[in-house]
Design goal:
Two copies of one chain form a homodimer. Chain A is an alpha/beta fold. In chain A, 40% of the residues lie in helices and 15% in strands. The radius of gyration of chain A is 21 Å and the shape is globular. The model of chain A has no long low-confidence stretch (mean pLDDT 94).
Chain lengths: 462, 462
């Protein structure tokens, strides 16, 4: 039995898939402070025009430039694994496959878009990228990408993570990235916060403000900002995951996938695996598509589809998305990458249109699933990824109970070797989930209740 | 241009290569305390008989059991990369290839023998394995292997590493391994040391003593001991690295390798890549084979070929090897896996017979090489692996100076994500190498000067 399927370099997909071209209702535009749509030219100080074109593109297939393919070849195509040993342990009639994104040098799927963004910026004549990072996955991935292509990289890392995760900082430094704790003295936004709250632990919202400010205020015009999730062009770059998976499944004669699963914080690894399968679904295939989030940050399962800012400080345009309100502060679960108040507009719209069925899972169940996976399949997963594993196990259990053969595919978005602290708490029985009172969600949502409302028809077709 | 070469699962080598069958002078036997050869039966309380048979085998090719292949398929065959970006940065006419062992779930080549040893022990009816670990690579790999196959795993971890590397302990725990600090209260050897030196940082020698004692004193007979390097059967299991590399090079029409490089502490990753090429060399091919060690632990480049114990406490038989004397305590360089006083007997004999040409490199040069590699090829290497990279860069530089095209192959034995502290010291200019006075080496060698002398003819043929 084949346990692992590789593709040769020449079999790598040559185009990304753009779900925006196939959405039953067109994607709603981002809105400016005046409530009017934000045109491409307004984004020009923040992103290079070639990426802005991708952001608003309605083309179904977008060619992957040779220069980007060469960067992806460092670790792609990634292997597709059959989880035979997990199947045996669960005694399930289901077949379980997973796409192994943990083998990238940065340890996750993030480099897929990092190298593409770095390449397009370089093409556009940009010399330096700024970004923010929370737990450090994205800052590492962008440092890696900038290093390979020869761009300067500046990462504003949330202070509490900067202090707690010195190894992440060293990874960035090894790749030539320059990582500073945020808030910093380098920006007006940072100085303002530090003056008021010298001991602040920082936040992703503040770090975004600093990174954007530093990009747009570089008078040489040679600096731009880079974001690791949420935006349409990020989802686009990640679709190589699902496109490779389809080729790999075809290679071993697996003609039909029944369930596709990914964890979702900003949405990029989920979108990357799932969008090519949602394309099949739009074209008539019967596929259950499940984005998985923590119960303690229930963006998709308990929050409305609304216009909201992407950051805490209202620096970004209003985006149409499932959102808990930009002032929502998620409990300190260990899956740092899933602690985001919103969800990518493209992913959000697939939920509204019934193309996928989100699910929330408690932190403790996720760690249990990750340990079952480590002991059977041998890979120690990232805390974020454990949510996808937990849902896959739920589906495999259901298949056993129903006595149904089915084929489950999930995205192993990253390894957990840099984030083992949560495992330690689990071993010490010190890990809990967090109950989230409805009032708390409502309070946060109240802050955006007067914002414009996006209109997307629920077709009820899927 | 092909950057990365995969093999499909069905292309994996089906046999290991045993260099012992081809050595010009037969391998010298291990000796007991009485100076007489140690027969297989004397090793039976320590290792299962099926592995002892491999240890003394003179068969050139040994079948890899299907059960072991199934375990290897979790991450193998590993990719072979062409380091085109490193070549460009060095402006060298040389082609540089590397075998990427860093993509295993434990992050190094160690699982190659861990899964084989676990499988043979299980076949033999063993229920539990004990071992020691220094920095934690081997303890992690054996925990991983035992978890996959359903064996109990007990790891004695040198106390100072146990305290300094809590993440390694968590990796073992995630795979169900039971890791205790050594010396421990669990063994007579441990208790004796603790009574005398309650604050001892521990040592690999003590940890070996504890692991062996716990294995041989289990009256059920269901426990054995496992070693991650030095022994013949460990070298054997690692040859899958070089055998895969040969198939991969053939696949892209690369008919001739000129230089083969690996770092060497106990010798296993070097042997794994190099032995199949040394086979070619014995059969007439012109290949330069370079095992690389730290200048601060110069086993191969400054120490004699002599009979010595493998451990500090004289628990093991006398092995014929390049050795600095078993009381030699290497300086605290960051490549923990290269801090060993001896060298595998098989590797040692290839040096005596002129089949390979060892080289010592300073720690600082190695970190510089690793950073050049991280910024061009994108992978952050383990401190041990940096020695192989440094030698590959030396060879590529030489090729440029001589204006010669040549093909260099090295083993990327592991990633450095769990061992970034050395990088931090390098960034802070706080990293030094250690001068090693000849007197210090002589003092250590004096302790073994009355041991029996191995006799191996230097043929001078290579």
């Amino acid at each position: 039995m084949t346990i692992k399927v590789f593709l040769a370099e020449e079999e790598i997909p040559r185009q990304w898939y753009n779900l925006a071209a196939d959405l039953p209702t067109p994607l709603q535009p981002p809105l400016g402070p005046d409530g009017n749509p934000v045109g491409p030219e307004m984004l020009a100080p923040v992103f290079p025009m070639n990426l802005i074109e991708q952001e608003v593109s309605q083309e179904r297939w977008i060619d992957i430039p040779d220069g980007v393919l060469e960067l992806l070849y460092r670790w792609r195509p990634s292997p597709l694994h059959r989880a035979v040993h997990l199947e045996q342990a669960l005694n399930t009639p289901a077949k379980i496959y997973y796409k192994n994104e943990s083998i990238s040098p940065a340890g996750s799927h993030k480099p897929n878009t990092a190298v593409a963004q770095a390449w397009y910026n370089k093409e556009f004549g940009i010399k330096k990228l700024t970004t923010e990072t929370g737990a450090g996955q994205w800052g590492s991935a962008l440092s890696f990408a900038c290093s390979l292509i020869g761009l300067e990289c500046k990462v504003f890392m949330v202070r509490i993570s900067f202090d707690q995760k010195p190894m992440r900082k060293l990874m960035m430094q090894a790749w030539g990235g320059h990582c500073v704790a945020s808030p910093s003295e380098e920006t007006a936004a940072g100085r303002e916060i530090l003056a008021k709250h010298p001991d602040t632990p920082g936040s992703l919202g503040i770090a975004i403000s600093e990174a954007v400010e530093q990009a747009v205020s570089d008078e040489s015009g040679e600096t731009r900002y880079s974001l690791g999730s949420v935006l349409n062009h990020v989802m686009l770059h990640q679709t190589i995951i699902g496109l490779e998976a389809k080729k790999q499944l075809a290679k071993i004669g697996e003609s039909k996938v029944d369930v596709v699963i990914g964890c979702a914080g900003g949405g990029s690894n989920f979108a990357g695996l799932a969008f090519p399968f949602i394309n099949d679904k739009i074209n008539g295939a019967q596929i259950e598509v499940i984005p998985v989030e923590p119960t303690s940050c229930p963006t998709m399962t308990r929050a409305p589809f609304a216009y909201d800012h992407g950051d805490v400080a209202n620096m970004t345009p209003l985006l149409p998305m499932h959102t808990l309100g930009h002032q929502f502060i998620p409990p300190p679960i260990h899956a740092g990458g899933l602690r985001y108040h919103g969800m990518a507009p493209l992913v959000s719209q697939t939920i509204v249109e019934g193309l996928c069925a989100p699910r929330a899972i408690h932190q403790v169940e996720c760690y249990e699933a990750a340990l079952t996976f480590a002991k059977t399949e041998g890979i120690i997963a990232a805390p974020e990824t454990s949510h996808a594993i937990a849902a896959a196990i739920q589906e495999a259990d259901k298949a056993r109970e129903e006595g149904k053969e089915k084929t489950i595919l999930f995205n192993l978005s990253g390894h957990g070797l840099m984030d083992l602290n949560g495992y330690q708490l689990y071993f010490n029985n010190a890990l809990t989930d967090y109950a989230l009172p409805e009032e708390e969600i409502q309070k946060s949502l109240d802050t955006i209740k007067n914002y414009p409302q996006p209109s997307v028809a629920k077709t009820g077709k899927w």
